[in-house]
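Convert to structure. Protein one:
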Amino acid sequence: MITQLAGNGRILLTLNEAGEWIDLYAPYPGQYQHLREMRLGVYDIELQKFRWLRAPGDGLHFESDHRAAAYAPQSTWRDDRVQIRVQDHVHPNHDLIIRRIGLTAPAGRAFRVFQYHSLNIGESPYQETAYIDPESGSVIHYKRRQYFEFFGAPKFDVAGCGEHTLKGLRGTYVDAEDGRLEGRKISHGSVDSAVQWNLTGAGDSEQVVRLFIALGENTEETGRLRESALSGGNVGRMEREAEAFWKTWLARHPMRATPDLSPQSRAIYRTSVLVLRHVAATNGSIIASPDRRSLILGGDTYNYCWWRDGGYVAKAMDEAGLYEYAERFLNFALSCQSSNGSFRHRHFPDGAFGSSWHPPPFLQIDQTGTVLAAVWHHFKRRMDLDVLLEFWPMVKSAADFLLSFRDPESALPKRSYDLWEERDGVHFYSTAVVSHALERAARIGLELGKDAERWRVAADAMRESALERFYDPKLDRFVRSLDPRDERLDSSMLLAFKLGLISESDPRTRTLVDAIEQRLWSPRVGGLARYEGDEYYGHENPWIVSTLWLAEARLLLGDRERCRELLEWVVTNATPSGLLAEQIDSTTKEPRSATPLTWSHSTFVDVMHKFRIARDQDALADE
């Protein structure tokens, strides 16, 4: 499971609970995953003992420093003879990874440190070349126009290339396990490499070596990065730049302390804002999660941009002051919008249409509405009319599509898949999103002096029809879907309150919120399940977003204390490094499915801001 990560919008690096690298994405977070395996090993010359620093064991104590887990992952291994402390950085404006390896051991005691790397360049382990450059001493892996240059400071004492998988070979890491590296100077096919430094302990003083990985389209690009990193002999400069940048960046995106909330809640907020930053590509794509474990169970990953997730993430970015990143997402959406104005299921981070299990037209109607509403939200936070002018073509096309995608008799949206991507029908949540989006489009048109009354009229008609058709007097509440009818309670119905389909003054609103909390609350571990009978990764597991929707609904109903309790439930169910999963196991309380889930983090950011605003308003009212 991912526990630590670092990135810069082009590179995204993830680590697991044992301090090992899991993913190395470039040139977009989520695309492509170039890493097959990385290993760090140490050989004690006096004992003639070799160990890979992997999962805890073999007498080694392992710990992670979670204070910087989302921008400078740090891991430490130690026993009574040696301590190895590793810190990983991704430089904020260079395509450069810096791994700082510090060894502390008794004076005069000799060790050899080995770093093994095996890549999947372009997500394939074949047709790759690895070689040692005779001039620089670097190890270079390349395939087509993707180059990875590994260089050290100090230079590697020994480096070797080899092969894995094919021909019955296990990998060059085997060559290191006798404490002596003897690899070849060049290999091709399914290749790997290993490097070695010879270090001698200096008592309490840490002996430091650095591994740099420069990414580029050719050796000229990676070579320039190498020269810059090593220039003037100041080999720690890039590392210090990266650390200083992220500390300053965090200081400029704080969550103001409130007496109601725990210090841990602010720490999770800080991590959440960093996660939003890391999963957002420089081209505007926002992936749902860097976690690839669903590939085994579900046959695909979360490494896509969903427009629903992205739209909500963009709103949270605006709340956190990440205006540029929200606007990049809207520009990415503009580049991916279908010719009819809709947004199809999901896209790869480079903008290509992603895989789908939905038949044509690959549509969840709420996704189109969420993007449209995100434009208005961005304008509200920036108050820059030029923003609306820039996105007017996208807004007009999307709103006209939503207008056309209605049943003329009911005035409700036509059938499409629900937000959980499981059922085709006419859904309460989707209807709330579409009516909200049409109303926002009308506001945008009014700001720009455009004729947009048709969208407002359609939004009003849709809202009136929904309140009549989705309400069941016998149940004394709304149902979640029509055509086919589905009466099960669903946590997404809570968002109809936030989106204005139902109001605080309507007694049916509180009835619905109470019914959802009573039925979907997990009796054993707390938290709110998605819907009745949910079996995704377990039976009615509580979801982070569902619980936060309940928190916001309670806040809108005036129950700030219940909102606070629900926020703190989320905090207590974060991983030790502050990451939020998609869901929590209803029996074991362990994180389930994608971790981190971007949507979980963005919803936490959004509700934290709303809670603070409500508290400030209450404080003003008491003055």
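Protein two, convert as well:
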Amino acid sequence: MTQLWTRLFSKHGVIAVSLGVAALISAAFLFFAAELLNQLELRSSDQIWRIGAVHADERRLIVVDIDERSLQQIGPWPWPHDTQARLIQKLAAAGAREQIIDIVFTDAQPHEASFVAAVQQQQPVLAQVFTLDQGGQPSVGALAGALDWATCPAPFAQSNGYLGNFAALKADHAGHITPRVGRDGVVRHQPAIICHQGKSYPALGLAALMRGAGERNLTLQRGSQWFGPAWSLRSPNQGMDAVPLEANGDLRVSWHLHPDSFVSVSASDVLADRLPADLLKGAWVLVGASAFGLNDTIATPFEGAAAGLQVHAQIITALLDGRTPFTPLAAPALQAAAALLGLASLVALSLLGRRFPVYLLPLVATGWALLFWSVHAMLLLQQAIWVGWSAPALFILSTGSIMGVLQHAKSRLDRDRLYTHLSSYLPAPVAAALALQPPSSAIKASTKQVSVLFADIRNFSAYCEARPPAEAAAVLHAFFSTAAPIVEAHGGVIEAFQGDAIFAVWNGDPAPDACSPDGKPAPPPAYHAQRALDAAVALLSAVHGLLPDPAPAGLEPLALGIGVETGPAMAGSFGQASRRTHMVMGRTVTIASRLVVMTAELAHPILVGEGLAGQVGAVGLESMGFFMLDGMRAPHHVYAYPLVPEDAPGQSH
């Protein structure tokens, strides 16, 4: 289990796990929440249209609006047919090249002859509506403008009802105005062709384009080029550019032009001859209604309630410019390539290890997601290509987030493992500090009041010379393994293992307002001195029976000598940044080490310096007199700790 855990949290293991989990998350979203991602793309693209919409003076298509002012001046809707006939004739007289009427005339009136005559004479493109809901729907009026197709191809929607113009009009050109309303109410698509009873009827914009190009029919062609659309509509006589379609046969609405770009005039001004001269000359005219109550209101990327004619104005101008947006056949491959590119960067940064902060991986993934969105926006605005960005962004964000979390967890595990290793070679507080500090060549040390313990196995050098190395190593290992828990149990820290000796320290000189780690006031130096002395007694007792006894033939018996002292010492790190050591040094340390040497001479296993004796009280200690310790310039008072029989290790002292 430990080996498996180690493999999972290796560099390559973290990358593999991140990829696997991110792939599962992405697959789950694509399978169970595909519509959520689709809505995210659509709504973000609405923002793209709002930001990148062009403010131009569009004069090729003029909007004639049946607005509130028109209803006030002409009368309530529906207007009499002779009024509608006058509007058509006025537009023709003003020089309009094409008339596209976003109105369905369902009711015949007693005096419609003038209207029928105007339609027959000017040949405007009339509107009709289909129902795409399931179930039987009523059909009103007559349909017109069907394409000369033998059957209705598969990609196009089937209708079960319609709303057409009254039969007497006999319109030659008609197009449907059926929108494809999104779940949020915004119109972003329109079926290019709708099928009804085996016949195919084009959208209003397509019908207007055919009328302007003099085309009577269209051909459907399946896409075969990587960067081409799934389907396209073409004119047999090459009179109009190919029209790209989505995979389901829809036209994707281009909101490239800001609504303010279109010149809109009131229908009442047309009827009253109040238009500027030559405004309509040679232009296409789109007649529609924006007046409240005429039930022609839709939501667009620009506003929540707009006139439905805006959709047709955008579709027609996009068809004229050849910039109808479409999704290329290569879109999935392009998204996969983008995801792989972002993934490669995350993997490369992850493999850099310490040279790259792992917590930045989610930020890098977010940057890639924003880049995908930016490329999608650029292609949509400049090339009218809809590539999509949510799927690769989801994968990269998932991978980067998971990889960042796992890499952070790995770094924590590595740091804990490093700390564990360091604390087995250095004092635990020193290891903890070093694990969080950068390398430095400066001296990092301070003077503290400490209690020091040296414990040395006497005669061990001769023992090592006479016995096999493995046996000597076993004795030393047993001694170190016994000493370390005793020192730690008494609040000390093993500073170093020095050959066959241990060096332990108790730090006992806190500032007056300092506190211990548990928040309680730190203990005084006397407390640490007593604990060091107690540790010496416990260590001597624990070693009894651990050292070989009796000694091998010809060898002096192994025995433990311990020296303890309390006083000031300097503790810290020394050396270059590339090779440093931690040391506790000073007079106190020197005295303790010299006391160990004297234990054999004075026949006492535990000798105490005058500094520690002053802290714990000389009462109970046996004065051995003043001695000139090796390397010291002044005599030092030495005390022995008298052992009672139960403390004695079974050796003479």
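Residues 430-640 form a domain with the Alpha-Beta Plaits fold (CATH 3.30.70.1230). The first strand starts at residue 58 and ends at 66.
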